[in-house]
Design a protein that fits this description.
The protein is α/β, with parallel strands linked by helices. It has 14 helices and twelve strands. β7 and β8 form a beta hairpin.
Length: 379
């Protein structure tokens, strides 16, 4: 898995058995690899409004497959494991564009998404079947193509008596709602808005740092309440699910508005405001779009944002101040490492796809039917 933060690759090697809520992960391990500065810069340029040219994008698509192959072999080497033990690779790819809302294009309404890191190249490099390009099948059925993690949440975290929320704080924040004893068609979820992506961008542009480790920078700043209120009026926060978002929208609409204040606000205050934006937008999304249907008992947090103690404290404060009796903890408490969850998710999605099992959830994405996700490439 490589996400919207554009910072590197998470790899998980897992043994999977069964399907749906009977699926069991009997053994797994994983690690992460940072992108080189040059590769990260090229990916950021490709994912921005700048044009890197079709030839360069074509090269980057294949170059990234080589990066994925190396990450997999290096992960195996950490346990002196053999690639011959692997049956299948699931690879999400690096999102360059995500355009979930239909708009007229050459005479008909179209929506689309683009992930690079060619799965056919990866299959040949590894000598293994690879399933990639997971989002488009759902979009072809009228869905948003994201979020896809809710299927994993359904399999792993559904509880017979508790209503649970699963919040992933990656580059983008997405929330899954699992009614007690839920069937797959009762699962509910959507992208709430930004998580780490805008915070990381501000750290990089204003301070030359990759991220706000532990949230110390945000803690040292002061939230600009007027600016926060202004940002929360963005149409994305106000629109009802199904909805998903990505780097292009959040950078264009929210990051730009924060950077416009950089001449009048300190970097610390801007980062504090961006951190509050993540926490408050999650809570507001819950109040507006979840609580009227399901009052959750427990919120299970994963992703890099789970390490940001300032963000976690703000999130807990939002729920506590508004009399929401929600226990908030991380996925570590359930044996799912907060940094590895999404990579493990795409192992599960690939496993299900190989067995012909639909993993897109229409109640999440808005599709008109479930779809078997991904494209199978064989060596």
């Amino acid at each position: 898995m490589s996400g919207t933060s554009l910072d590197g690759i998470d790899v998980v090697i897992a043994d999977l058995q069964g399907h749906g809520r009977q699926l069991r992960i009997t053994d797994w391990y994983g690690t992460s690899f940072a992108y080189s500065e040059e590769l990260s810069d090229q990916l950021a340029k490709a994912a921005s409004e700048e044009s890197i040219g079709v030839a360069e994008l074509s090269q980057l698509n294949v170059r990234l497959a080589h990066e994925y192959a190396q990450a997999i072999t290096r992960t195996l080497a950490t346990k002196e494991d053999s690639i011959q033990r692997l049956d299948l690779v699931g690879c999400h790819g690096q999102t360059i564009r995500h355009l979930p809302d239909k708009a007229p294009y050459l005479g008909i309404p179209i929506h689309s998404t683009l992930q690079i890191g060619d799965p056919a190249t990866l299959a040949q490099l590894l000598g293994l079947p690879v399933i990639g390009d997971f989002r488009l099948a759902d979009m072809a059925c009228g869905g948003q193509g994201a979020p896809l993690v809710p299927y994993f949440d359904y399999v792993i975290f559904t509880h017979e008596t508790e209503v649970r929320g699963c919040l992933n704080l990656g580059g983008v924040a997405n929330l899954t709602v699992l009614p007690s004893g839920a069937s797959v068609d009762q699962v509910y979820g959507f992208d709430t808005g930004p998580a780490n992506m805008i915070i990381d961008a501000l750290c990089s542009r204003l301070l030359g740092l990759p991220f706000d480790g532990g949230g110390e920078i945000a803690r040292s700043g002061r939230v600009n309440e007027a600016l926060l209120s202004e940002l929360l009026l963005d149409e994305y926060f106000l629109s009802a699910p199904p909805k998903s978002t990505g780097r292009d929208y959040l950078n264009r609409k929210l990051l730009r508005r924060l950077l416009d204040r950089s001449d009048h606000m300190s970097a610390e205050d801007l980062i504090a405001t961006a951190t509050a934006l993540t926490a408050v937008s999650v809570w507001r999304a819950y109040k507006a779009f979840v609580e009227p249907r399901y009052a959750i008992n427990r919120l299970i947090v994963s992703g890099g944002g789970a390490h940001n103690q300032t963000l976690m404290d703000l999130l807990k404060d939002c729920f506590a101040r508004n009399a929401c009796a929600v226990d908030i903890e991380t996925s570590d408490s359930y044996g799912i490492d907060v940094d590895s969850k999404e990579a493990l998710c795409f192992a599960v999605l690939a496993h299900e796809t190989a067995n012909g099992i639909p993993t897109s959830i229409p109640s999440v994405t808005g599709a008109d039917r479930p779809a078997v996700l991904g494209k199978l490439c064989v060596p």
